[in-house]
């Protein structure tokens, strides 16, 4: 049980079910998924993928400081949400990647990310057909 680095195809079923329900499976493939620097991760319990996330080397400038990675496509199997799996996964991911990152967080997930050390930057914005999002980033530390 725990964090595993996986291939792209391992994250597609949960991306589809949770993040693009009812949409064609092609919509589950993101630009940059195949990039050499992109890493796909799963939280596995009893041989089953119960949560997924992807880390892409997409830097973003925040007040002159570049945050080098973007977290994308985070989702927990609906039968397993609310049990702390996403939090354990995110903490383990942070140790594995060991770099600061940012993400476009769905409004419903903002509190989840805040509890796991990210902060909202700026105003909300809309992603068509998906809804309101906030840019979030890992908190600055004295050394970063
Ligand atoms: C957000 C998500 C990845 C969290 O994973 P998880 O395994 O449920 O995480 P935890 O159990 O550690 O934490 C649950 C927290 O997520 C929040 N949450 C967001 N969407 C939720 C959902 N569909 N079901 C249950 N909890 C959800 C809960 O409010 C809870 O926060 P709280 O404890 O502050 O109330 C997961 O709920 C999910 O896949 N949601 C739908 C897809 C999504 O919004 N992904 C993020 C895209 S930016």
How would you describe this structure to a colleague?
With 144 residues, the protein is α+β, with helices and mostly antiparallel strands. It has one domain (2-138): 3-Layer(aba) Sandwich (Aminopeptidase), CATH 3.40.630.30. Helices cover 22% and strands 41% of the residues. The chain contains three helices and nine strands; from the N terminus they run E-H-E-E-E-E-E-H-E-H-E-E. The chain has helices at residues 8-19, 85-97, 110-115, and strands at 2-6, 39-45, 48-56, 60-62, 65-67, 69-76, 101-106, 118-127, 131-138. The radius of gyration is 15 Å and the shape is globular. The chain starts with a strand and ends in a 6-residue tail after the last strand. Coenzyme A binds at residues 18, 51, 74-76, 81-87, 105-106, 108-109, 111-112, 115.
Features:
22% helix; two-stranded antiparallel ribbon; globular; binds coenzyme A; 9 strands; Aminopeptidase; seven-stranded mixed β-sheet; single chain; 144 residues; alpha+beta
Q: What would a concise description of this structure say?
A:
With 144 residues, this protein is α+β, with helices and mostly antiparallel strands. It has helices at residues 8-19, 85-97, 110-115, and strands at residues 2-6, 39-45, 48-56, 60-62, 65-67, 69-76, 101-106, 118-127, 131-138. The strands form two sheets. The protein has a seven-stranded mixed sheet.
């Amino acid at each position: 049980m725990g964090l595993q680095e996986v291939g792209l195809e391992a994250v597609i079923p949960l991306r589809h079910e949770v993040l693009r329900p009812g949409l064609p499976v092609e919509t589950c493939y993101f630009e940059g998924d195949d990039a050499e620097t992109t890493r796909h991760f799963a939280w596995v319990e009893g041989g089953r993928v119960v949560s997924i996330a992807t880390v892409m080397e997409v830097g973003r400038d925040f007040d002159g400081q570049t945050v080098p990675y973007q977290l994308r496509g985070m989702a927990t199997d609906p039968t397993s949400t609310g049990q702390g799996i996403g939090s354990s996964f995110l903490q383990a991911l942070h140790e594995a990647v060991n770099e600061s990152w940012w993400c476009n967080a769905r409004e419903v997930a903002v509190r989840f990310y805040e509890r796991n050390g990210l902060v909202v930057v700026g105003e909300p914005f809309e992603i068509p057909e998906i809804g309101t999002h906030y840019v979030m980033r890992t908190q600055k530390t004295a050394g970063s």
